[in-house]
Write a structure and sequence with these properties.
about 260 residues, alpha/beta, 5 strands
């Protein structure tokens, strides 16, 4: 009741409603009831839910949902099978078919820092972008009590590289085939794509996902530098990112010499 009162009286403060659903026995019935109530507010609604087939997807779009997220989370086939204990082929097929049926209405979440190989991660990102699927990047966050609680979050260098290339691929500024990787499938920082990305630094590191999504502190605390900035990025923050990337580039060049 408090939520609906807030949304009704302060609707002008909000641009989108996002419903994030955890799996439970009656989640579909509960969420359908909630959607019917939220529709009266006349705000676009995004849904992130454990949808398993196109029939369920169709049902929610018929209810008036604006965008639906079908999470991939683990963008590496071997890791996906090990962590999710589900079929990689079935999940990828569902996301692709959904993207073709509902063009530019499907989002997928991808988590960085699960041990994925950068070559295959970016290959999948590239394929999904070609299907007009929106990529929302997340940094792995260890949670106490889960089987991955001892795993560390990704380092900023890795995360920034993936953010940059995802943006450049999305904007059709580069091709996946032009990228180079080392023997361990890690993306090599090269002058040409780094220089190409500089004019876009104010946008590249912002939160990605549905329109108007900013997700503040979704995968970090306010005590650390955001992986995804929920606000305009400051000049000193851009300078810090540039130094991080250029330091790695210089290190690689020195190693080659």
């Amino acid at each position: 009741k408090e939520l609906f009162s807030l949304l009704k009286d302060k609707k002008h403060h909000f641009k989108r409603i996002c419903i994030q659903v955890t799996n439970s026995k009656f989640w579909k019935e509960d969420i359908k009831e909630l959607i019917l109530k939220l529709k009266n507010l006349d705000l676009p609604i995004s849904l992130s839910a454990p949808i398993e087939d196109l029939k369920e997807l169709d049902e929610f779009f018929r209810l008036g949902i604006d965008r639906i997220n079908l999470s991939l989370d683990v963008a590496d086939r071997e890791l996906f099978i090990r962590i999710k204990e589900k079929s990689w082929e079935d999940r990828i097929r569902l996301i692709r078919e959904a993207g073709r049926r509902y063009k530019e209405k499907i989002t997928t979440h991808i988590i960085i820092g699960l041990g994925e190989r950068e070559r295959y991660l970016l290959e999948i990102i590239n394929e999904l972008i070609k299907e007009k699927i929106t990529i929302a990047l997340f940094a792995f966050t260890p949670l106490p009590g889960t089987k991955l609680e001892s795993r560390n979050p990704p380092d900023y260098l890795t995360y920034r590289k993936i953010q940059i290339i995802t943006y450049l691929l999305r904007e059709n500024l580069i091709s996946f085939e032009s990228l180079r990787f080392d023997d361990e499938n890690r993306l090599l920082i090269e002058d040409w794509w780094l220089n190409l990305s500089y004019p876009y630094f104010e946008r590249i590191f912002l939160t990605t996902g549905c329109p108007n999504c900013n997700r503040p502190y979704y995968n970090e605390t306010p005590r650390i530098t955001p992986y995804n900035f929920p606000r305009p990025i400051r000049k000193e923050e851009i300078d810090k990112i540039k130094k991080l990337l250029e330091k790695e580039r210089c290190s690689l060049n020195f190693t080659r010499i």
